[in-house]
């Protein structure tokens, strides 16, 4: 019957990523303590940094959620430093975050030129990325692993394929015993185009990661949740995890939330109606306002990731004498 027709992926052509021109390269990554930190004065951000420091000194979690442009803005080393210094206790991202991170790790480059690639159907059809990531996920699913751990374990087992492990965010999180979870919308990632894709395995691994994320959110009382550039997945996953935590009786009222993006919302704490397009911007409701309606505080910062994340690292290090919270 017509309602049951499906398109087979058999016959899809792939190309080696070694032949691709990459817009983001490993040698362009920004390095903490080497590259200058862009100037940014913002009193609300200063207060947020104080809350991050207080949270970690009290042993409370700091969760960083992100979209893929954090990786594409050459900030992997900053994320790794924030993990290794004990600032970030949980890293969460969408599927694209894992893909750009994975490609930088094996290829030393990522981010193809989409406008031309989509014209002939070559967009995303990269053999190594699709084959290796899907293989890692399928192996991880059989072992009951989460998505992030499945990719990191695969890297650990095939180090010869991954010459840039030192700059891989998900791998360094794995080595630091910090959860890196990836929350997948099926059909959104280039590895979903690959002939070897197994959607059941992807769902199983991402489901494990959602349980891990829910655990971290359940511990969030007195902690901080920050979202950098994820417009849909991050805020939606966070709101569901928060509801689950409260449903189970975990105290998650006195929390701090912050959203970082380039969209100017004006007075983001002022109630708005359905006639205002900003009402439909998910981070405004799901991160800045609703989670702190009974306690805590939420912010929306209009700033480039290349400014916000280096400043977050620099200011926390300044307040801790460069030591971070490796003891916490």
Automatic annotation (TrEMBL):
Gene3D superfamilies cross-referenced by the UniProt entry = putative lor/sdh protein like domains (3.40.50.10690)
Name of protein: Deoxyhypusine synthase
Give the source species.
Candidatus Pullichristensenella stercorigallinarum
């Amino acid at each position: 019957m017509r309602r049951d027709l499906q398109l087979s992926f058999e016959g899809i052509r792939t190309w080696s990523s070694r032949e691709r021109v990459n817009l983001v390269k490993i040698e362009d990554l920004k390095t903490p303590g080497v590259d200058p930190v862009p100037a940014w004065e913002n009193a609300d951000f200063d207060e947020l940094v104080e809350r991050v420091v207080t949270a970690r000194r009290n042993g409370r979690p700091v969760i960083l959620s992100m979209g893929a442009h954090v990786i594409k803005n050459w900030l992997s080393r900053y994320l790794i430093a924030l993990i290794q210094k004990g600032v970030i206790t949980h890293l969460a991202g969408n599927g694209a975050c894992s893909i750009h991170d994975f490609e930088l790790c094996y290829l030393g480059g990522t981010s193809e030129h989409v406008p031309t690639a989509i014209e002939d159907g070559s967009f995303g059809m990269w053999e190594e990325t699709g084959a290796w990531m899907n293989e890692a996920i399928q192996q991880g699913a059989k072992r009951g692993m989460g998505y992030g751990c499945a990719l990191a374990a695969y890297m650990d087992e095939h180090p010869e394929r991954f010459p840039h492990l030192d700059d891989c965010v998900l791998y360094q999180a794995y080595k630091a015993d910090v959860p890196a979870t990836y929350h997948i919308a099926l059909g959104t990632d280039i590895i979903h185009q690959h002939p070897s894709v197994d959607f059941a395995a992807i769902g199983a691994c991402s489901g494990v990661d959602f349980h891990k994320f829910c655990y971290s959110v359940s511990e969030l009382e007195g902690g901080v949740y920050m979202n950098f550039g994820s417009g849909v997945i991050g805020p939606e996953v966070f709101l569901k995890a928060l509801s689950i935590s409260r449903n189970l009786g975990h105290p998650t009222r006195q929390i701090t939330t912050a959203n970082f993006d380039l969209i100017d919302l004006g007075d983001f704490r002022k109630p708005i109606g359905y006639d205002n397009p900003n009402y439909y911007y998910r981070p405004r409701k799901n991160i800045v306002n609703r989670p702190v309606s009974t306690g805590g505080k939420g912010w929306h910062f209009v700033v480039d990731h290349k400014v916000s994340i280096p400043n977050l690292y620099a200011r926390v290090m300044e307040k801790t004498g460069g030591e971070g919270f490796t003891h916490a």
